[in-house]
Structures are given as structure tokens and as C-alpha cells.
Design brief:
Length: 198
């Protein structure tokens, strides 16, 4: 993990999140309070502004810096949840990312604990958990497969009944809409994989 590659990865994720802010906001209007895209854009604009200095850090420290920015800048439930994902990953990941599957599994567990939720409740975990499973299974074509895994998992939230988060207040009306957090999680996975393939 060179500083140049890390810089490329940070910019790829931040630029995609900023570019999809309107889409995420529209998704959140259907099931939440309509601020997911705005909040994620604000958070990743801050991450992008610090990309140069962050990329010079060892990978664990870089992930900690990103997680801290997201906690501070992203409002709503998403800030603490995404912050937890990156901060937990920073504590577990090896500097060369050689233990990514096990580190990511610990990070997903941390998100479950922070959100007091499980896969199947129409949240970002419905993407993170299948991605974790695919990482654990391994294979040489992971960066080619993972975006599809994540996108399919996000699509699978559409028919779900939300039982956690703000969408759960809608009851049956939450059915038929993609979860915004699942979509933003899938976007991050796709951005990282695409940047690694560049």
C-alpha cells in the first residue's frame, strides 16, 4: 500500500460519494429524513481535502483519520456508523492490508454493535455482511466480483421491511425502497475495487 495508491483510493471513494449525493438524498427522502446524500457529501469533502496528508500515513493511521473525519462531519446516524466502520478497521488492519478479511469482519461486528442491528433489517449491514462473506471466501478475482456482490445486496434491500433506523418508523411503507446506507456502502465497495483495478 503505497502513498500514491492510498491517495488514489481516497480520491476515488470521495469523488464517487460526492457525485452520488443527489441520488442518496432521493433514496433517503423515501424512507428517512432526506439528508443522507448531503451528509455523506459533507463528510467525504472533508476526507478529500485531507487526502494528501492522509495518504502519507501508514494504512491503519490513514483509516483512523478518515473515520475521525466521518464521525465529526457526517450528521445523522451515518456519521457514527461509517466512523465506526473505518475506526474499527484501523485498529485491526495490518499496514500491508494482508489481513483484510479478518479485519473487515471485526469492523462489521463493530458496526452491528454500534447500530444494535443485524443483516436483514434494511441497513448498510445488508451490504457489508455479504461483502465480508465474499472477502472471507477469497479468490483472485475479488476486486472484479465484489462490486456485483455489493450492488445485488443493495438491490435486495428494496423488498425488505425496515426494522432498524429511521426507516423503521414507516413500517410497511418502507417496503419497495432501497436503503440509502446500503446504497452508499455499495458505492464505496465499487469505488475501492475500481481504483485497485486502475
Amino acid at each position: 500500500m503505497t502513498p500514491a495508491l492510498l491517495h488514489h483510493l481516497i480520491l476515488a471513494v470521495a469523488d464517487d460519494m460526492i457525485a452520488h449525493a443527489d441520488e442518496l438524498t432521493e433514496l433517503d427522502r423515501a424512507v428517512g429524513d432526506g439528508d443522507h446524500g448531503i451528509n455523506m457529501k459533507r463528510g467525504f469533502e472533508a476526507v478529500r481535502a485531507d487526502a494528501g496528508s492522509t495518504a502519507e500515513k501508514p494504512l491503519p493511521d490513514a483509516l483512523k483519520a478518515i473515520g475521525t473525519q466521518l464521525v465529526m462531519k457526517v450528521g445523522g446516524a451515518s456519521g457514527p456508523l461509517y466512523g465506526t466502520l473505518f475506526l474499527a478497521l484501523s485498529k485491526e488492519i495490518a499496514p500491508d492490508a494482508s489481513n483484510l478479511p479478518t479485519a473487515f469482519a471485526k469492523a462489521v461486528e463493530a458496526v452491528k454493535a454500534r447500530g444494535k442491528s443485524q443483516p436483514g433489517q434494511k441497513t448498510m449491514l445488508d451490504v457489508l455482511a455479504p461483502v465480508q462473506t465474499a472477502l472471507a471466501e477469497g479468490g483472485g478475482d475479488l476486486s472484479a466480483r465484489l462490486p456485483g456482490v455489493a450492488a445485488s445486496a443493495a438491490d435486495a434491500t428494496i423488498p425488505m421491511l425496515a426494522t432498524r433506523g429511521r426507516a423503521s418508523f414507516l413500517g410497511e411503507r418502507s417496503i419497495g425502497h432501497m436503503d440509502p446506507g446500503a446504497r452508499s456502502s455499495a458505492l464505496i465497495v465499487a469505488s475501492v475495487c475500481r481504483a485497485l483495478e486502475d
